[in-house]
Design the sequence.
């Protein structure tokens, strides 16, 4: 199979961790007889510096032409604490999501037995946690009308959802539930918000098409509590953009494996794969960042974008092996030997 | 001093836990030479049953005439999973907040050394946690314009804030920070929302009036993570209505003392005090519910509404004593003797 992949390394540690994912992907492709063509493109602060735009048109064209996008991280400290700056890396992210139509953000949270002690939660609370959030990513209050009124003394944001937007996301949720344990939780604030009532109505209507799926409806505040109390009670959760932003970040810390969590953003045509961690500028260029979340994002890409399950499994296996054998970066070394980012990548590629 | 208190017991376990708070308040009043006049009024499902309205006008008049409101809990299972029902107990809550102008919800989260093991988080993560959220309670997306368009196929909600609303809440936050450890965190989503940018601007302008307060600005998704990672890093947090709804519930579970957490909702004239737990209908009428959160809410009332610090301290002390001596309801009994709700109340009143 010929795989055309757009490569958006981004800022901070992005380029370093992306390099390792490329090595591992190339190794798995060689083993299974595929050929990958990587097309790099600029994004984030790097793109602002080069062409004054965090998601330039050229980059968009590269993404559209590709079968999948592998993404590092964006964000740079010089843009922090200045949310009103004219051009910001995050705007590139939002523009990219919208222009590529990446409507479903898939964020798994699971535990690695060898890392479970790193969780702030007690082991007995998180054992067996294996949940996945489906966050709507191109609608809601992120993309609604906003502005100032009344002589700059009033600000407003609008949250809007159409039935079609909810349906598209919810269907993905039901399908995912069918492939997992047939449990789906719709997270909303239907006791207050009209958009949430539309969400609930729409999901309720879909229930008859998936009679095997057991659906629950929970309020976002309750889920924010229960995620910390008993995360293993959840399986597939679907929710709107802003709730998803908050809850997926909350969920990511409970497993103790935050630095290892991959994610996918699915569109009708193109899909994008990226680690959930940020650009971690303090570590940039030092060859110390943990590349595993990006490598596991590449695994998600093989499985989700190309339907190549064995290839994905091969990557996950070699990652587990590296953890078991202690071939890990300093964040996981725990007093043992700390390998460099590039050394971990080389080891993974060789052991595929 | 003569204290006029409106008594809104509400639904479920509300009446039982309120009874204990009344006993303890009367005991502390007798000890310190005050006289309390309690005026009961209907609210929640109880009010819907009686007069078809969750927050009837008569109840509002009782609250307006009082110096403070002590509130139990509202909510009844027959209204659950029917968010579009015409009359719902929660509507009473929102109407009450709005009509009484309860603009600042104060939600402390602290640890009781004897309960620290109940937390889902590891002890070393939560030791020393003592934070307080100030949630804006009468604005934002809870009270903005909402509706349907496009043949019922689109729903929208509007989040609106005025500079004056933000300033009023933020000032309370700065004042509270001055009385505590002079650290204030403004939680927003200023990288996306215009209302958040107004929040940040307004808080930034106030900084010069409180030069001793160290202010930080964090995004809501980051706070959702850090609350679980290192809750003790926070002190006073201010935020808008919906973020506050989610984060205060999340924060309430980390200390392991959720069943004991009080809260206050401050208005310009009247203030309201209530436990953060719900109406817990399964336990209603069984005399088993833990009354301590309501008793501690009464303590907050003495201190905040009446400036009676010693009285508040006397209540907190007797609560600590009951915990130390194991005079607790079944949720805290841990294999030891479980006292009834009313027995705990009697013991507290006698030991004041
Ligand atoms: C950077 C920011 C705009 C973005 C979001 O809120 O979606 C980020 O928090 C995320 O979750 O990818
Ligand atoms: C019942 C509901 C409307 C309410 C809210 O969202 O404010 C509740 O969750 C709370 O926090 O008091």
Sequence:
């Amino acid at each position: 199979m010929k795989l055309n992949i757009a490569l958006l390394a981004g800022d901070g540690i992005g380029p370093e961790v992306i390099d390792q994912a490329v090595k591992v992907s190339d190794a798995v492709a060689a083993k299974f007889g595929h050929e990958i063509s990587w097309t790099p493109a600029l994004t984030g602060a790097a793109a602002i510096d080069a062409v004054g735009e965090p998601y330039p048109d050229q980059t968009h064209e590269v993404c559209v032409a590709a079968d999948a996008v592998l993404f590092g991280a964006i964000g740079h400290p010089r843009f922090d604490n200045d949310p009103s700056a004219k051009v910001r890396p995050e705007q590139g992210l939002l523009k990219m999501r919208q222009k590529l139509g990446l409507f479903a953000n898939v964020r798994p949270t699971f535990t690695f037995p060898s890392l479970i002690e790193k969780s702030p939660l007690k082991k007995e609370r998180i054992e067996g946690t294996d949940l996945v959030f489906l966050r709507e990513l191109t609608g809601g209050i992120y993309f609604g009308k906003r502005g100032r009124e009344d002589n700059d003394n009033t600000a407003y944001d609008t949250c809007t959802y159409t039935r079609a937007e909810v349906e598209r996301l919810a269907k993905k949720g039901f399908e995912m539930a069918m492939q997992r344990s047939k449990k789906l939780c719709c997270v909303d604030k239907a006791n207050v918000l009209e958009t949430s009532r539309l969400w609930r109505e729409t999901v309720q209507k879909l229930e008859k098409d998936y009679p095997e799926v057991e659906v629950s409806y929970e309020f976002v505040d309750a889920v924010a509590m229960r995620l910390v109390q008993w995360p293993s009670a959840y399986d597939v959760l679907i929710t709107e953009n802003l709730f998803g932003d908050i809850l997926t970040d909350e969920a990511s810390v409970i497993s103790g494996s935050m630095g290892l969590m991959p994610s996918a953003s699915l569109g009708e045509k193109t899909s994008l794969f990226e680690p959930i961690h940020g650009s971690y500028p303090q570590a940039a260029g030092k060859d110390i960042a943990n590349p595993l979340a990006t490598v596991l994002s590449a695994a998600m890409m093989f499985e989700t974008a190309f339907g190549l399950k064995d290839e994905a499994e091969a990557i996950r296996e070699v990652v587990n092996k590296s953890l078991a054998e202690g071939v890990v970066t300093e964040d996981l070394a725990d007093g043992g030997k700390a390998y460099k980012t590039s050394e971990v990548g080389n080891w993974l590629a060789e052991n595929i």
User: Anything to note?
Assistant: The mean pLDDT of chain B is 95. Residues 264 and 304 of chain B are 8 Å apart (CA to CA).
